[in-house]
Amino acid sequence: MWDSNKKFRFSAPAMQARRCGRALLAFSFTLLSMQIKIRSKNLELDEKIKSYVEEKIGSLNKFLNDIQLARVELSLDKHHRKGNVFYAEVMLEIKGNRFYTKEEAQDLYAAIDICREEMIQEIRKFKTKMRDKKRGEERRWKRWIKIWWWRK
Fold this sequence. Notes:
Number of strands: 4
CATH superfamily of the largest domain: Ribosome hibernation promotion factor-like
Largest sheet: 4 strands, mixed
CATH architecture of the largest domain: 2-Layer Sandwich
Helix content: 40-55%
Mean pLDDT: 78
Distance between the termini: 50 Å
Shape: elongated
Radius of gyration: 23 Å
CATH class of the largest domain: Alpha Beta
Number of domains: 2
Strand content: 25-35%
């Protein structure tokens, strides 16, 4: 937010973090963005493909904010019956976890789209698991407090 002096006004938690010498930690979550590394095999990458991958894989950041690195490998394989087969592999690195998908399609852009959809499903599954785990811990604490209270 901006005040009348045109200086940035910090919220109360950010000011506390700044006073404690942890200002970098308080702002690192909003300032850091996902790093995307693109590699190709038997395929020449042009700017159009790179921008498409950055757009599609970069949009995964709205589903999970802690993504540190996304590795994308695009490859072309010439099959003797199917013709050209495009592969897209995506690996996301998050604090302590990795998500991996590999898809193939007759079109490179379709393979990237399918890979993105699979990755969204993986992220939703992970978030549901973490939410249920947190709820289970809360239930255990609630039960423990009830037992402790009635034993007094």
